[in-house]
């Protein structure tokens, strides 16, 4: 079917492109097995866990360090301001 006008031709081209993308995406499967065996993925997971562990320790132990080593009383300083 031939459509006249610039807008109709563009619409038909968009429609064809969307159909091709749907066919391409529909036939692909997610490679979960190869992802699970991927060293870069595991390196990223280990780095993320280490980072989160470090941040958690830093946030929970910083007030104790400031109080015992530096002598900064956090509750007292917060009340004055």
Automatic annotation (TrEMBL):
Entry GO terms, CC: membrane
Main location: membrane
Molecular function per GO: transmembrane transporter activity
Keywords, in A-Z order: Membrane, Transmembrane, Transmembrane helix
Source species, domain of life: Eukaryota
Statement: the UniProt record of this protein carries the keyword Nuclease: no
InterPro entries: MFS_Na/Anion_cotransporter (IPR050382), MFS_trans_sf (IPR036259)
Recorded topology in the membrane: Multi-pass membrane protein
GO biological process, alphabetically ordered: monoatomic anion transport
UniProt KW Transmembrane keyword: yes
Name this polypeptide is given: Uncharacterized protein
Localization annotation: Membrane
């Amino acid at each position: 079917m031939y459509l006249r006008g610039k807008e109709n031709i563009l619409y038909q081209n968009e429609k064809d492109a969307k159909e091709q993308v749907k066919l391409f995406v529909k036939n692909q499967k997610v490679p979960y097995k190869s992802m699970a065996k991927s060293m870069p993925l595991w390196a990223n997971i280990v780095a993320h866990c280490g980072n989160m562990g470090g941040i958690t320790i830093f946030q929970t132990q910083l007030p104790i360090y400031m109080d015992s080593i530096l002598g900064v009383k956090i509750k007292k300083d917060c009340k004055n301001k």
